[in-house]
Amino acid sequence: MATTRELQKKEAEMPDGVERTRPRKAYTPSVDILEKKDEIVVTADMPGTDERSVDISLEKNVLTIYGMTDPEQQKASRPFYAEYGVGDYQRAFTISEEIDRDGIKATVKNGVLRLVLPKAQAAKTRKIEVQAGA
Predict the structure, then answer these.
(1) Whether pTM exceeds 0.90
(2) How far is CA 20 from CA 15, 25, 104, 124, 133, in A?
(3) In this structure, is residue 42 part of a structural domain?
(4) What CATH number is given to the structural domain containing 76?
(5) Domain range spanning residue 109?
(6) Does residue 80 form part of some domain?
(7) pLDDT tens per residue, range 77-124
(8) Cβ(64)–Cβ(79) under 8 Å?
């Protein structure tokens, strides 16, 4: 018997006392976070966004991703089949002092956001040379 996997976008939660400025739903994008030797790479799925519609901010230790989708693009055609609702994307991460804040880079291609968070020099693993004692 075949099993069905339900694909539902999870609506983004807003902190207490914070309101949205757009009257649309905001969803939590799915992300992959990979740690490499010198950096952490965050990849977020945000269909319908491009480099002009993504806003990334860093305040204190909170990195916030916000992506807006164009409702006019959806009005141009009628969906034949849709597995998830239309809306914006929002997600926030707390980052540690191990990240070099000035070196963070972001790119968007085909609705996939890629953030590269380089590790600060102090946080990088380094090899310590061992010498023979005298």
Answers:
(1) no
(2) 11, 9, 26, 38, 65
(3) yes
(4) 2.60.40.790
(5) 24-121
(6) yes
(7) 777 777 766 789 999 999 998 999 999 999 999 999 999 999 988 766
(8) no
